[in-house]
Amino acid sequence: MGEVIRTPFCDLLSLDVPIMCAPFGPWDEVDLAAAVCNAGGLGSLGTAVRPLEDLERQWRRLRTLTDRPFAVNHTMRPFDEEAFEATLAARPAAISFHIGVPADLIARAHDAGIVWIQQVIDASQALAALDAGADVVVAQGGEAGGHGGNVATMVLVPQVVALAGSTPVLAAGGVAGGAELAAALALGAQGVNMGTRFLASTEMAISPAWKERIVAATADDAVKVANSERIMPPYSRPVAATAPRALRTPLTDALAADPDRIDAAEVGPAFLAGVLSGGGDQYLPFAGQSAALIDEVLPAGEIVHRTISEAVAALRRASAHCQAQPPV
């Protein structure tokens, strides 16, 4: 790989590089997670709406592809107690969580010796996560794909870093390569959590059309999805409302302009069925504004290696540009 960047986040989870691949809910990302893990980062597997037998099959398969640490993600949209209990028994290196800060689940993970990675969308959530004992906090800016808030990454990361003390913070939202990793480190984060960049990877098991849309997208193509409750699963506990971000489709436009004309009884099950078969992108092709920075589909290992080498180069450029000059 050449030069590497290591931070205390790497030490916490025995990683080579401070890069986490975001979880993608129900979509199968076993091959992607393995590739990221084998490249020295932290791969993830989602759990949302997947039957437990599917999840356990994924965990077993991942362990045949890598012996490196990985994370299993849970969420409140929806939360599955049976899947969470099985995750504790499976003992991944980490459990990640987004949409809400569940102090009771954090305590259960710690009792099982599992690191907790908590994604937050504002400073108040960060405080709640730290108070509950989160081991890592992911500060996710509103640029991100999937569910997020409205505070920009450049604003949120320094806020969370100031609150976190010695707890590692990862930056998420608008991150697609080394320049953004370098910026995150400059803001005080100890690494990044990348989603959209890894959606457009060779190993990610989504349709080529979805990946091609990411490559072709501008930042303005990735919009907040209004009224998503009409077609998506409900929240399992009361949480601060978040709006997912996806590339525009006729459905996103209709949900924004006239949600009452959407037949939820028809579209909701069709979307879920598509998701469980690896699709659903004709409805909601989740992606963040960082799609504007992505111009090709790449193998995940190459994404990791390029991100590190680009970050090293960016940090050197910044240092060279900022040499102290004598007063004029």
Care to describe what's here?
This protein has about 325 residues and is α/β, with parallel strands linked by helices. Helix content is about 40%, strand content about 15%. The protein folds into two domains: about 10-205 and about 295-315, TIM Barrel (Alpha-Beta Barrel); about 215-275, no CATH class. It starts with 7 loop residues before the first helix and ends in a 7-residue tail after the last helix. About 50% of the residues are buried. The model has no long low-confidence stretch (mean pLDDT about 95).
Task: List strands and helices in order, with pairings.
Layout (H helix, E strand, L loop, with lengths): L7 H6 L5 E3 L8 H9 L4 E3 L6 H14 L4 E6 L5 H10 L3 E5 L4 H9 L3 E6 L2 H9 L4 E5 L5 E3 L4 H12 L4 E4 L5 H9 L4 E4 L1 H4 L8 H9 L5 E3 L18 E5 L2 H8 L6 H13 L23 H22 L7
Parallel strand pairs: 1-9, 2-3, 3-4, 4-5, 5-6, 6-8, 8-9
Antiparallel strand pairs: 7-11, 10-11
Structure at a glance:
With 328 residues, this protein is α/β, with parallel strands linked by helices.
Oligomer: single chain
The CA-CA distance between the termini, in Å, is 43 Å
Give the mean pLDDT: 95
Side by side, the strands of the main sheet go 1-9-8-6-5-4-3-2
CATH superfamily (homologous) name of the largest domain = Aldolase class I
Strand/helix succession: HEHEHEHEHEHEEHEHEHHEEHHH
Characteristics of this structure?
eight-stranded parallel sheet, 41% helix, single chain, alpha/beta, 13 helices, 328 residues, TIM Barrel, three-stranded antiparallel sheet
